[in-house]
Fold this sequence. Notes:
Layout: H1 3-29, H2 35-38, H3 54-71, H4 77-101, H5 114-126, H6 146-155
Helix pairs in contact: 1-4, 3-4, 5-6
Amino acid sequence: MSTSLGILIFFATVAAMEGVAYVAHRWIMHGRIGWWLHESHHRERSGWFELNDFYAVIFAGPSILLLAGGVRWGWGEWATWMGAGIAAYGAIYFGFHDVIVHRRIAHRIVPRSTYFKRIVQAHRIHHAIETREGTVSFGFIYAPPVDVLKAALASSGMAGVRAPRR
């Protein structure tokens, strides 16, 4: 396999992972199956970890399997490139979501670009809801415009909106 094709597989996998993340977040994490873990992420965290962190372990599984398959078990270079793409998406997600938005690691980064501000605002709007239903914005590398999200939130009747902090 050519390096160019491998790089293409890598970037296509990173892009496809946004769709996988959207589906998993919308219908598994906010669904009946996975809310028991994800609910902790919509509540005030006490301590360093929350139950939702187990999703990182779960989603690392396919990446580890593909990397091992490509490197050790002879599945082909495509598996290595794809596993690396999944891992890269996980690193991007961790950087944006856990570090920048939720500030789980102290930093001084201030979103300045229009794109960056929209991603952060969209995720904050997502967290305005504490319940499974009525939440908007489930992707993370892509987010609809903030006014669209606010309109969708308003049309949902604002059920489950987080009480103001005191």
